Predict the structure.
Amino acid sequence: MTHYRLQRSPDKAALAQAAAAAMAAVIRAVTTRKPRCVVALAGGSTPEAAYGHLGQEDLPWERVELVLGDERWVDAQDPASNARMVRRCLLSGSRAHRARLHPVPTHLPNPEAAAQAYGDLLNTLCPGQPPQLDLVLLGLGDDGHTASLFPGTAAVDVKDRWVTVGLGKGLPRVSMTAPLLSAAQQVIILVAGAAKRQALQRLLDPQEDPARTPAKLVAPKGEVLVLCDEAAMPER
């Protein structure tokens, strides 16, 4: 059974700062014992705010490798691109500009080719079966999805690959799979807003069906740190 440690912030602004501090602590700890730290980042407005704070942290950024937990099948310059957001919010004009971002190769002919290539990249960055990421930051959708593992889609059931093709909100997406996300050393889930309250309550419920709430499929050996604001806090 996955153990969730819930940490509450009073509002979204404080939540962004708490997320940046938690991520910085993990990166700092990993780089004291390993040559590099591989971090999987999430898209979305709440992580976006956290990246602004994280980029100001004094860390050995030149030893940090950044990958994406998922990416929409759009051009790299499209406003919906997670890679574009990370470049703008984390890597531009901050201490973090020395980190190396590995975007999903959306220039390839199709999502399937990109998923295969991204899986190969992850095998190179952190060899293992599955590769072991040092830190994964995830969001939580109001429907219970995380990364691009949406309820009722085939991506949820993929267990024989590290990266797959999903479909969410009308767009093809390249996404890390549940086995890869579950192999991470540290998982942080970031949740903000009253619209996410029910999804968070379901995530924390030991009896909840992962088919309805795919975020529950992310089940690392260690605890999952769940950072939420007051509005998303489940009712007692």
In short: Strands lie at 4-9, 37-41, 64-68, 70-72, 100-101, 135-139, 163-168, 171-176, 187-191, 224-229.
